[in-house]
Amino acid sequence: MNETHSLLVHLDAGPHGASRLRVARALGGLLDANVTALYAVIPASMEMSLLFTAGVANQALIDLDETRLAKARQLVTSASAGPGAPIEWRQALEAPEYAFARQAMYADLLVLGQHDRDQRDMGVPSDFVQSVLIASGKPALVVPYIGVREPSFGRVFVAWKESREAARALAAALPILRQAHTVHVALDKAEGTHTDLLPPYLQRHGVQAQYHTMAADAGSRVGELMLSMAADFSADLMVMGCYGHSRGRELVLGGASRTMLQSMTLPVLMSH
Length: 272
Fold this sequence. Notes:
This protein is of the alpha/beta class. The protein has 9 helices and 12 strands.
């Protein structure tokens, strides 16, 4: 049974939207799920309106916004070409974090992009992913800005920790895990955990996995260790909880989550 019927992809004004759409469309095909692209950015004319007062400058910013919008629409048109279901287009008018989080409540899985620190003109704040995760409560597949040339979900690495965050991420990933040909699970065998309950749980959902132990002495290096294990297994996808606590609307990330969002080398399905 497939519990994932709708994917919501975020499009911004940066250069990485095409990769995000490729991943979303491939996943939508795998899961027979609808794919919707939501263009949600802070308009340049709004960001810079206090710095420019001349009409010419204001018009230039309006023209920039229209160019950004046209490029995003063309990305969706191009991504929808060829076999497969088309991608539905939506455009948000509110602040991007608010608009995306609100519409995320009507989707099963989000597709977001890792923040690229070298791109200063993306139209969203650097903590967009964290803000959406905490505000929507929905699981998200975060795509690295280095891109994914050929999206595939055949080899999955699950970083398991006995926590609500990891449990939510694992539940969201089950439709993918059932179709993967290889699933590796790294277990955090902290004292008092019930890791022996995980194999029968996955088996009941039709998932056969290989199990490994996460090094107990990894400490603050756990994020790097997870990336290293994913590389060793040639994983196409990682599944993990997103850890942290809220401070107002900000999600203050834990060490492993922060490392992953800064240094990911493969798509990561995460949930807070």
